[in-house]
Specification:
By secondary structure, this protein is α/β, with parallel strands linked by helices. It has helices spanning 10-19, 35-47, 57-63, 105-118, 134-140, 144-147, 156-164, 203-208, 227-248; strands at residues 5-8, 24-30, 51-55, 72-76, 95-100, 122-125, 150-152, 169-173, 179-180, 190-195, 211-214.
Length: 249
């Protein structure tokens, strides 16, 4: 059997077992791992009918890419994706984000981590994306990449067309003719596109977006924020606005 991914660390492995985001073929635990760590992982694996093997530390080290695995790895299959319409289920005000053009799997994972914590309902990615770098993405996202529903679209324009037809406001960041995120209305159903630092968002997409956004700075600074940081700031502003609406209604 050829494995498509190796997940590293208790948090990433437990997230995959809980979310069923991919088939987990086997879990390996270092014989020297802490008892409480081994017990938690084994319980979840047993519930998912996944075998657990206790191995020497050398086996773990030979398969892990980093040193923060804590003595736990898993051999797993490819990431499972849902359909775009599945990201809209269970909410009357969906908040869906497309991460487009990220250049680094660590930054991609950190963006997913922030979006999950802020309550985004799902993430859209292109067919070629960083979910293939499972170990790095899962570790940098603290397991959120396994827990967050993800769907695939060929392009941001295709995804925007789909979500516009279903009543979502189409938003993205831009340098010109943009409104501050603190003046925008994020209480509406929202599809937000976050572009990577190098490629950014295409002019064709910007020209047809319903809402152009900017993150205001305290002082003059020419450079844009890192894409992962922008994702965090905007998503938590969405959370703040929606929480305020709930508490005042």
């Amino acid at each position: 059997m050829t494995d498509h991914a190796i997940l590293e660390g208790r948090i990433a492995v437990e997230a995959a077992l809980r979310a069923h985001s991919r088939d987990v073929h086997a879990v390996y635990v270092d014989k020297a791992a802490r008892i409480e760590v081994a017990t938690r992982v084994e319980r979840l694996a047993r519930e998912a009918a996944v075998k657990v093997e206790h191995v020497d530390g050398e086996f773990i080290a030979s398969h892990a890419t980093g040193k923060t695995h804590g003595g736990v790895i898993a051999f797993a299959g490819e990431r499972k994706f849902v359909q775009l319409e599945d990201l809209l289920k269970g909410t009357d005000r969906p908040f869906v984000v497309m991460l487009d053009g990220f250049e680094d799997p660590f930054n991609f994972g950190q963006a997913v981590r922030s979006l999950y914590a802020a309550g985004a309902d799902g993430i859209v990615v292109r067919p070629r994306n960083w979910t293939s770098a499972a170990a790095i993405v899962a570790r940098s996202s603290a397991g959120a990449s396994e827990l967050m529903p993800m769907a695939i679209a060929e392009s941001a324009l295709d995804a925007a067309s789909f979500f516009r037809e279903r009543g979502l406001t189409i938003a993205c960041t831009a340098k010109k003719n943009a409104v501050s995120i603190y003046d925008a209305d994020f209480t509406v159903p929202l599809f937000l596109v976050i572009g990577g630092e190098k490629r950014g968002i295409t002019r064709s997409f910007i020209s047809q977006a319903d809402l152009l956004l900017s993150v205001p700075y305290k002082r003059w600074f020419e450079s844009s924020l890192a894409a992962g940081h922008a994702a965090a700031i905007i998503s938590f502003e969405v959370l703040r606005q929606r929480k305020h609406v709930r508490t005042t209604n």
